[in-house]
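Closing statement on the 3-isopropylmalic acid sub-project.
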Amino acid sequence: ARIALLPGDGIGPEIVAEAVRVLQAVADRFSHTFELSEHLIGGAAIDAVGDPLPPDTLKACKQADAILLGAVGGPKWDDPNAAVRPEQGLLRIRKELGLFANLRPIKPLDALVDASPLKTDIVRGTDILFVRELTGGVYFGDSGRRDDGKTAYQEMVYSEAEVERIVRLAARLAQGRGGRLTSVDKANVLEPSRLWRSVTTRVLADEFPDVTLEHVLVDAMAMHLLVRPRDFDVVVTGNLFGDILTDEASMLPGSLGLLPSASLGAPKSEGGGPGLFEPIHGSAPDIAGTGKANPLATILCTAMLLRDGLGLPDEAAAVEGAVHDAVGSGVRTADIAAGAASVTTTEAADAVL
Amino acid sequence: ARIALLPGDGIGPEIVAEAVRVLQAVADRFSHTFELSEHLIGGAAIDAVGDPLPPDTLKACKQADAILLGAVGGPKWDDPNAAVRPEQGLLRIRKELGLFANLRPIKPLDALVDASPLKTDIVRGTDILFVRELTGGVYFGDSGRRDDGKTAYQEMVYSEAEVERIVRLAARLAQGRGGRLTSVDKANVLEPSRLWRSVTTRVLADEFPDVTLEHVLVDAMAMHLLVRPRDFDVVVTGNLFGDILTDEASMLPGSLGLLPSASLGAPKSEGGGPGLFEPIHGSAPDIAGTGKANPLATILCTAMLLRDGLGLPDEAAAVEGAVHDAVGSGVRTADIAAGAASVTTTEAADAVL
Ligand SMILES: CC(C)[C@H](C(=O)O)[C@@H](O)C(=O)O
Ligand SMILES: CC(C)[C@H](C(=O)O)[C@@H](O)C(=O)O
């Protein structure tokens, strides 16, 4: 299988390097051959060639079977008014590869649940799979200025087809889990949310009679996540609401450094391309190069890559088991050590290996 | 002074009735005359006259010096595809009265901080004033359908003038508090956010050199609120982000039933009309009529009404002091009793009186 590596900025290169060691160990143990190639993205690509998603990178990604991304961005490229910005690379790769679904599992590890900002008895046992729409909504709506630049607009927009495909994917995932789907919108105010809600209701009724559907308003959901996170199974929502809610939810486990994500398109059978796997955390430029970065989220991304990207569930389970064992036996990088003794980036990966 | 009362739906009438008793006590003690008049809004108005904001109500509000609202909505009127919906009354009254600023103080009471879903040591000492833009953004953008109804859109839009007035108000409030302003946007993706950020930067530099300004992305803010809520003073943001973030933040104190809000327009000197004061919580139809509703948020709204609406700071302080004393001495309605003995709606107000 061909795997495209996009290390990106800040701690990106360090954590991708450790994940590569894990992929190589999987290749050895299970007798696979992974062809790995490295490409520029984000700030690093802006510095090198003036483009956060160079044509070569895009081409290599399209030819790959799966993509592993570190992180992009940093203060150096932070001006929101700059013509070229690192996150444009992210947005464009999502769009160009048709990665319309972002999956983020939020499942606090028992060994770390004390690190949650929430009370332990609220958060323990939480097991949510967020499914965020990733190539539509206001992110990709028509935008610009009017009135001599004094008014700015950007259109929030969803079509039935866009809602159908993400809801189908989420409902299928719910069938493989607890059988419950929560759809989040703002249907009391927004027209795209009203369309979202009616399409979701129809798809579930017509195609997934075995999945229980609940509609929740986005403001209410922001509250529920803090007082009854255990009540949710699969949560599907639009691009902007998903951005905010998944980041809110990412605090629940108390260990952002352990959360992976997958961005998927249509299945291969329907002409879809490779999935993209990346940790939820950012590029943390302040600790880049210090050996403090936690590689475990990226290593857990390789597990998602193996399962959802390459169809290798046993290999994925082996990686996940090794990470849980390492954490269970007390291996802690600085971010999850709560002031106690911690290991370096490489030592954490060693423990997994 | 003339005060328009809009009890609304569910528990609205019960809690407004208790707040009225407090207003009358203030009138007696401080020798004021408050002319109170009651008007229809929300579901109750739909049932009575088929309009969630009847012309009579709007007229009475425009003639009042301040408005006290209970809550609107309930399952009976919940269909998001219905042509007439209770929340349209809320959105229209905001727009018609030019109530462009929604103020929500989030300050957990020490006596109740144990009820927070967050760990006590994270949340204790939090004191945030949210200032949410309330008459612009995607809430009031052009909306509709295309492609035979198969695509829905709604435009997120902000003008420089809209951003300037809300930022000025927030910065002035920061001057009277800790001198720090956090502006929340999504400037890395949205054009209206880029305008928001540049206008905010300019207004602060030109007019408020004494206020410290920080820009935070909305997804990051959703995280910060859970791990370092104490770091924020005044937070200003747009309509949609404010809706989500203030509801998230409303969970921090662990006592939603104690949170008031104020919606304000331009000052009277600039032709502005009355402010509108309402609790953050909803209409809780499930407990309407049972005597379980907590009237304290609405009573705290009368304090904001006295201070920000009628310019009576001593009267406001008296009400706030009485509420804090009541809670401090152990008065608890069911929602904040944590299973222990609780008082009724009327008994809670008695304690304040
Ligand atoms: C960097 C930014 C454009 C991006 C987003 O908003 O989608 C990020 O926050 C994310 O969630 O992956
Ligand atoms: C009822 C709804 C339209 C309203 C809003 O979104 O503004 C409510 O959530 C609020 O925050 O006052």
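Chain A has two domains: 1-98+266-353, 127-251. With this model delivered, the sub-project is considered complete and its resources will be redirected to Aim 3.
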